[in-house]
Every structure is written in C-alpha cells, then in structure tokens.
Specification:
It holds the Pfam family SWIM. The chain is mostly helical and about 220 residues long. The chain has a domain of about 60 residues. Helix content is about 35%, strand content about 5%. It has five helices and four strands. The strands form two sheets. Strands 1-2 form a two-stranded antiparallel ribbon. The protein has a two-stranded antiparallel ribbon with strand order 3-4.
Length: about 220
Amino acid sequence: MEGRIKFIVHLERGYCSCRSWQLKGIPCAHVITAMQFRMIDASESIALWYRKETYLRAYSNFIQPVPNIIMWPATSNPKIDPLTVRKMHGRPKKNRRKEEGKIKRVEKLSKRGIAMTCSICKSIKNNKRSCPSRPEATSATRTTASTGNTGVTIEYNATQQSSTGSTRKRSVDNQQESTSKGGESRASRSKYKSPRVVWGMVYLYLRLVIVVLIKVCNAAN
C-alpha cells in the first residue's frame, strides 16, 4: 500500500495489480515485500528469459555467416541508380543546417517596436527632412532678380555659373591642345625612321647585289 492506493499481489499466479511483474518479468517492490513476509527468495521469481541457461540455449545452434557481396545471387530487378546531382543557382552554402527550435545568433538588435524620433526637434511626428525647425541651407553669394509684374524673385548662384563656365572653357582648350599635339606627333613619327629600319633596308640591298654578282659570274664561266 502506497498512501491511499492499494496493490494486490498473488504469488501463486505471478500477479500484481501494478502490472510491472507481468510486463518486465522482474518482481516489483510490492512482490518483494510479500515474499519477504512469507520468507521466500525473490531471485527465484525472475522470469526464465533472464537466466544464463536460456541465453546459452538460444546461441547453442550454428549461426550461418553472412556471405560476401560477390557471393550474392544476381537479381532480375532493375538497377536503381543514384539521382543526378543538379547544380543549383547561386553560391553553395557552407554553414551547417541548424536544428529546429535552435536559437539563432543575433548580432544586431531589431528596431521593431522602437519609436523613431527626429534628430533635430526629437519629435515622433516628423523626421530630419520634414522637420519645421530645420535650418535653411547656406550657399555662396546669391543674387536676386525680380520679374517685375508678378513680383516673383529668382535666385541663382553667380559664382557657381562662372566656375562651371571656366571649367568648360578649360576642358575645351585642353582638348584642342591635345588634338594639336597629337597631330604634330603623328606627323613627326611618320617622317622619322628608326636605325633598325635603315639597317634592315641596307642589308636587303647588299644581299640583292651579291646574288646578282654570283649569277653574272656563273653565266660568264
């Protein structure tokens, strides 16, 4: 009896209401208590399949050895080949496949749920671009020109226009100078001949003269 729960043991039938003795073949705590009360050895109530005699009887027969793969009989069934490896798109993955439920490594915290504020006025309603207290952009000297009747003023940067004009003029001048220099260099290259070319022409001329003299001597003889 364990607390308010009672267990019934029947030693002659090999029965206990907890069913551990019937399932495992080893006497449970209730059976051992009943055997001690009757002065019975509990080791004699262990099932036969746990004993040494049963183990030796099971392995007493001859066990056929497993033959080699060469000795296997040929089968008439179709041969199953492995699947062809198909090259997937993109770079192959090198990281191992993580198990389900494993916590992912987080190096950077997510900004989900965080209220974003303006860096100027610290308000949640706007950001830095649409901030009403954003200072106006300062530029170089500006000149204003009124249109007269409408009263609308047009602002433009004079220094910017002058600088762009000067840079364009310089680029055009540099381009003209480079083209003139390129033409002169090509003309000078066409007139000038390297010493290697001159010596090559002299060598061919001398060789031709020697061949002509040899033919004349052979004809005279």
